[in-house]
Amino acid sequence: MRKRTPALFIKWNYIGPIDS
Length: 20
Hints:
By secondary structure, the protein is an all-alpha fold. The chain contains one helix and no strands.
């Protein structure tokens, strides 16, 4: 997993937990 900015983390979390 590569480092991601809080903005992207929140955005992805909003859409759905995408860690794959």
